[in-house]
Design a protein that fits this description.
This protein has about 325 residues and is mainly beta. It has helices at about 30-35, 100-105, 220-225, and strands at about 1-5, 10-15, 20, 40, 50-60, 75-80, 90, 95-100, 110, 115, 130-140, 145, 155, 160, 165-170, 180-185, 190-200, 205-210, 230-235, 240-250, 255-265, 270-275, 300. Strands 8, 11, 12, 14, 15, 16, 17, 18, 20 and 21 form a 10-stranded mixed sheet that branches. It has a 3-stranded antiparallel sheet with strand order 9-19-13. It has a two-stranded antiparallel ribbon with strand order 1-4.
Length: about 325
């Protein structure tokens, strides 16, 4: 449960499961002075949140004239209460880099190797949460401050199989996460979390962990969910960088946040010619008339680059193009 320090002449030995401290060869007044300054240091994180651990001390005295105790035995107990420590990230990438086309086409996992741990005995995050939010970063001070994400930025969670075959199944299309959607770990609904913030268009993603009295959300379950967090981008001209913070809140309300930079590398997108949906038939004219066959066409380039348009007639003898 702990140890005595500031021993002042006491020596400690393991005595069959009990740790015994002995002080010999001093006067009663010296023994009293040393005894009164002993310090008990409990082992950290041995107490489950909300619980206690009791350490009991038996103190006896003898003199050198007899083996019998001449002083009265006394019984002292120290009750150690729990101090809740926040859940921690054992590892999390500080930066990820995605190609534009990849995050346009599908959500990309932020860090498949992230790991969670908690020093408290009886770790349980039921009733806690996982939250992903946007931040501004001040490089001159190394500090982060809450920010609003861009409309192109989207956070989500995707299906995945992780360490030791642990599975995460989500109840939504990864591009369209829904408030109220559920996450199930290893196919067992007793370990279900609920989405309260949808992570769309620059908003926070908030996942509330189940708080049923029969539910335990253990570290490996939080690992699996964190390893399924993902990002996608809706823009053909994405902003190069944004910062997010992943916040873990345990069942006692203690929280910790780790930060990550997401970079998106722009890629050239092909120009697009759009033909209106209203174009349902050929253009009918006589050979004495002219027409503008492309009057309702639209030409766009996502990056605004100069484009080249080439038109090929199937038979030049049938007519010509003019401006």
């Amino acid at each position: 449960n702990g140890e005595l320090t500031n021993l002042g002449g006491f020596t400690g030995v393991d005595s069959g499961g009990f740790w015994e401290y002995t002080l010999s060869g001093v006067s009663a007044s010296e023994a009293q002075a040393i005894l009164q300054t002993l310090v008990f240091v409990p082992n950290e994180n041995q107490v489950e949140p909300g619980g206690t651990v009791t350490t009991t001390f038996f103190v006896t005295t003898t003199d050198n004239a007899t083996s019998e105790s001449l002083g009265e035995d006394s019984l002292t107990s120290v009750i150690a209460l729990s101090v809740n420590d926040p859940t921690q990230f054992n590892r999390l990438a500080s930066q990820v880099v995605f190609q534009e086309n990849a995050v346009n086409q599908a959500p990309q996992v932020l860090d498949s190797d992230v790991a969670i741990w908690d020093v408290d005995a009886g770790f349980d995050m039921s009733g806690g949460s996982i939250k992903v939010s946007y931040y501004d970063y001040d490089s001159s001070t190394g500090t982060y401050s809450p920010a609003t994400g861009l409309s192109e930025d989207n956070l989500t969670m995707v299906d995945g199989t992780h360490e030791n075959g642990r599975t995460v199944d989500v109840s939504w299309n990864p591009f369209d996460i829904a408030v109220g959607g559920t996450i199930t770990i290893n196919g067992r609904s007793v370990w279900t979390a609920t989405v309260e913030g949808d992570g769309k268009a620059g908003s926070d993603l908030l996942i509330r962990l189940g708080d049923d009295v029969n539910t335990e959300i253990m570290a490996w379950m939080v690992d699996s969910m964190a390893q399924s967090l993902a990002y996608w981008n809706s823009s053909d001209t994405p902003t190069a960088s944004r910062y997010i913070g992943i916040t873990l809140t345990d069942r006692e309300g203690a929280e910790t946040t780790r930060y990550m930079e997401i970079q998106v590398v722009a890629e050239n997108d092909a120009p697009v010619i759009t033909i209106p949906d209203t174009r349902t038939a050929d253009l009918d004219i006589t050979d004495k008339e002219t027409t503008e066959p492309f009057a309702d066409y639209e030409v766009n380039d996502p990056e605004g680059d100069p484009v080249t348009v080439t038109i090929t007639l199937d038979d030049p003898d049938k007519g010509t193009l003019d401006t």
